[in-house]
Amino acid sequence: MPTPPDSVVGSLPPAVAAAIQDHCLACYPSEACGILVGQPGAPSRFLPMDNQADRLHAMDPEEFPRTSRDFFALNMAKVMKAVREAEAAGEAWLAIVHSHIDCGAYFSSEDVRNAAPEGEPAFPDLDQIVVDVRAWGVVEARSFRWNGQGFVPCRTWTAEIAKER
Is the N-terminal amide bond of 40 cis, ω within 30° of 0? Predict the structure, then answer.
């Protein structure tokens, strides 16, 4: 079995960790989402994105049975615009970030289905960061990466990311 890959993110600078925390707490009890940009090993910015899950659920509840309480959907047109702007500024897209509400920072089967439709990752070089958010604050964050066979954990941030309301 391939060894777990290293996180492309590295450490989270205090301002980046605070931006992730603030967005996740502001979105609670809905899942938050966004992207992380910077240089490999040195993220410089978290770009919050709107979770489109409730809009999709309202338009087609059979196709999208989950709401933002337990699902996130990025607006990929806005994500790609943000990525182009970051790249023009000399930054790289490092990670997709989303929160889990009251249930832990793990890569769920739903996360796998969305990140790797038909078993192939849409963005194999990105970290997938999941943030555990509770009513009282942010507990931890974990990144997962594609190792050629599946998404495996590669980094955990606890002290850097934990924040109480």
Answer: no
The neighbour count for residue 100, using CB atoms within 10 Å, is 23
Q: Give the span between the Cα atoms of 53 and 71, in whole angstroms.
A: 6
Give which of 101, 145, 139, 105 is closest to 21, Cα–Cα: 139
Classify residue 6: in a domain, yes or no. no
Exposed e or buried b per residue across 18-46, where buried means at least 16 C-beta atoms within 10 angstroms of its C-beta:
ebbbebbbebbebbbbbbbbbeeeebbbb
User: What are the tens digits of pLDDT across the range 133-165?
Assistant: 999 999 999 999 999 999 999 999 988 888 876
Q: How many domains does the chain have?
A: 1
For the entire predicted model, the pTM comes to 0.94
Q: Is residue 3 part of a domain?
A: no
For residue 141, is it within any domain? yes
